[in-house]
Design brief:
2 domains; Heat Shock Protein 90; two-stranded antiparallel ribbon; 64% helix; alpha+beta
């Protein structure tokens, strides 16, 4: 027998003793103990009928106490219908007892008994329904949270997998040329390319990596680029390098910004692209000088859009982009603890 059923039986028994005594229906001075037992058993049964009727009321009337279906309006409706039912049951029970026992029940005792029936049966059932409703809301909230997390994981996985295929193609093409012309440099290039893709594989299932790991990936990526376009991109760090292991960002975030700068600007030794990384109280700021290409392929902003989506999913914050004084600036919100 579960706890709810035990409590229900105790409440029914207690009420069968309480209502006749408190309402003044029964006097111990003028009744025998046999009458006392029968009298209280009768009211236990009457109260049990009232209680069970209230339990069945939502089903019979089609009242839904779902957490998604205006629950508190439905509770008020249920209270009203339960009250009508309890008044009817208690009036019939008292009338039957008066008829069976041939006793005259005083009007005030009759009214008090009906009120006690109403209060105890209705309130007990409503407390039960409200507690069940709260449990349902907690369960619903837990399910929604789990579904949101699964959706977020799926979206992050899709965003992680959107790597630029041109980078691999160009890198392999460069490696092919180096093998025949500069075998020693080809070996270093191949090792660095392997480290870049090793980083992709290691962090594939990670939501966040440290700033130090990201800068290491960026430097390896820019080394590969420097073989193709010597001295065309320069990186400047203007932050405390000791803090890099305490700050986190999505994998490939800095590389994404470097790719974005290279894609939209001319590469030349005379006017190299300067990429600068700064730290503020709230952001990692990555800026690059602007030497825009005269003719470019259509840009859909996929890289920045994906990066922004990842930040929204991980931290609820957006990246900030700005263009001023010949610079394109991207502010990445600081994340000081890994997810």
């Amino acid at each position: 027998m579960n706890l709810e059923r035990k409590l229900k039986l105790l409440l029914v028994a207690f009420t069968g003793l309480l209502i006749p005594t408190v309402s003044g229906l029964f006097s111990y001075r003028v009744h025998t103990w046999q009458e006392w037992v029968i009298f209280h058993l009768f009211f236990m049964i009457a109260f049990a009928v009232a209680w069970l009727g209230c339990e069945q009321m939502p089903l019979k009337l089609g009242i839904s106490l779902s957490a998604n279906d205006r629950p508190y309006e439905q509770v008020i409706r249920l209270y009203f219908y339960n009250a009508l039912f309890i008044i009817l049951i208690s009036a019939i029970s008292l009338s039957c007892w008066a008829y069976i026992s041939h006793e005259r029940i005083p009007t005030m005792a009759f009214v008090r008994a009906v009120i006690f029936f109403l209060f105890l049966a209705n309130s007990g059932n409503l407390i039960r329904e409200i507690l069940l409703l709260r449990q349902e809301k907690k369960l619903h909230s837990k399910v929604v949270t789990e579904l949101d997390r699964e959706r977020m994981d799926a979206e992050l996985e899709a965003l992680r997998n959107q790597l630029d295929p041109h980078f691999l193609f160009n890198s392999l093409n460069t490696l092919s040329q180096l093998i025949s012309s500069e075998p020693a440099k080809a070996a270093v290039f191949n090792h660095t390319l392997a480290k870049v893709y090793q980083s992709y594989l290691i962090n594939k299932n990670n939501d966040l990596v440290s700033l130090r790991e990201e800068i290491e990936l960026l430097e390896n990526y820019l080394y590969l680029l420097d073989i193709r376009f010597p001295d065309c991109v320069q990186v400047h760090y203007n932050h405390n390098r000791q803090l890099e292991h305490l700050l986190f960002l999505p994998p490939g975030a800095l590389q994404c910004l470097a790719e974005n700068a290279i894609k939209h600007n001319q590469l030349s030794k005379e006017q190299p692209i300067h990429i600068r990384i700064d730290l503020t109280d709230k952001y990692i700021e990555v800026s690059n000088t602007l030497h825009k290409k005269q003719e470019t392929l259509p840009s859909y902003g996929t890289g920045l859009r994906n990066l922004n989506s990842r930040y929204l999913l991980l931290s609820g914050q957006k990246i900030i982009t700005n263009q001023r004084d010949g610079l394109f600036l991207v502010s990445l919100p600081l994340i000081k603890t890994p997810a």
